[in-house]
């Protein structure tokens, strides 16, 4: 069977392709990726939780290639245990629920300001949910946490989008590659200068705390701090944007779920959980075999790329009955949206926390908020990695 994640039809709607893979060849060689793609839930869990056999060390190099803004060191997402633990231990302190809850009022304010912004740019009671709200919201939150200049939030958003587009670099022309290079250079230059400034004059922000923190009596080097800040900016930006954009993009598929959550706000977290299962913003992760392995009857040689298809795992009927149905009452435990195992997303609480604030704010401020397009008309980002609408015009009525 042929499977090409670079295929434009796949990137617009991967789910029929996943269904076919799970039914016919759940571990399949992909010529374009030069690796094995894994589609069934159980196999994906095996790959993600077994870091002895499936290493993360080439994750970043595969995703960003020569466009990595800080290639001298690998970010934690691309390190295996035990090295991985050093940065993870240091960084995750800032992501504990009790720390994040302190940000609630600021996040409320950011979402209120962005609703004002969306209304101010709207025409005929219509604005673009993807750009006028969802794109700006998480980047403003993470800018607040990192202590970076909020007036540059649109630049950050473009830089992160362009950098992540490096995953499609094999099929881009020189002009597009130049944009990606510019994004990579801009991120590096910005954070390099910022780390110098915060080393001189520490503030009450995450970057200053990374500069000063010690793990086992050792400080992070300048390039490690730059690398960590860029990882958090990437992790904290596109993913939650696509969660919110993707949520609204599915509105006409299951309006009753939105109506229920609007009427009973205690259902908002479950609306988000089911959305995270149904339309995961990160669709694939990469590992490399450290030795020859046999996965679901397929022998994979040593040092071979393995791509786990998270969107497929979340729609595996063996794990989630009637997986295409958006069901507010579903038990979503075990979904693969935030990965599994040692690299389980460090921002999972933050993303759900901030997204719930945003959804409640949208319900509070708009009595009607619905896309002009049906789900099948939505145009999705050209990517096998990130999934979110490129643009999403919505019609609103103020509450
Ligand atoms: C809906 C939103 C999000 C999704 C779907 C998501 C998804 C993921 C996934 C699938 C992984 C696992 C990577 C792997 O196993 O190789 C991951 C890791 C990570 N995420 Fe997220 N993420 C989200 C939000 C965030 C936010 C808001 C932040 C922080 C600001 C963040 C920071 C990270 C970091 C630092 C890692 C690496 C953890 C490690 O290597 O130990 N993520 N994320």
Q: How would you describe this structure to a colleague?
A:
- There is one protein chain.
- The protein has 399 residues and is an alpha+beta fold.
- The chain has a single domain (8-64, 83-390), classed as Orthogonal Bundle (Cytochrome p450).
- The chain has 17 helices and twelve strands.
- The chain has helices at residues 8-12, 15-24, 41-49, 59-64, 83-92, 97-101, 104-121, 129-134, 136-146, 153-164, 174-200, 206-212, 222-249, 255-263, 268-278, 310-313, 348-365, and strands at residues 27-30, 35-38, 54-55, 126-128, 214-215, 218-219, 284-289, 293-295, 298-300, 305-309, 366-371, 393-398.
- The strands form four sheets. A five-stranded mixed β-sheet has the order 1-2-10-7-3, sandwiched between helices. A three-stranded antiparallel β-sheet has the order 4-12-11.
- Protoporphyrin IX containing FE (HEM) binds at residues 48, 56, 59, 76-77, 88, 142, 231-232, 235-236, 239-240, 243, 280-282, 285, 337-339, 343, 345-347, 350-351.
Q: And the CATH topology?
A: Cytochrome p450
Rg value = 21 Å
How would a crystallographer describe the biggest sheet?
5 strands, mixed
Q: What is the CATH class designation?
A: Mainly Alpha
Domain count: the total is 1
CATH homologous superfamily label: Cytochrome P450
The total of helices stands at: 17
Mean pLDDT figure = 95
Gap from first CA to last CA: 52 Å
Write the element-wise H/E pattern from the N-terminal end onward: HHEEHEHHHHEHHHHHEEHHHEEEEHHEE
Coarse morphology: globular
Q: What's the count of strands?
A: 12
Q: Uncertain spans, ≥5 residues at pLDDT below 50?
A: none
Strand order of the largest sheet: 1-2-10-7-3
Distinct compounds present: protoporphyrin IX containing FE
This entry's quaternary arrangement is single chain
Reported CATH architecture: Orthogonal Bundle
Structural class: alpha+beta
Beta percentage is 5-15%
Fraction in helix: 40-55%
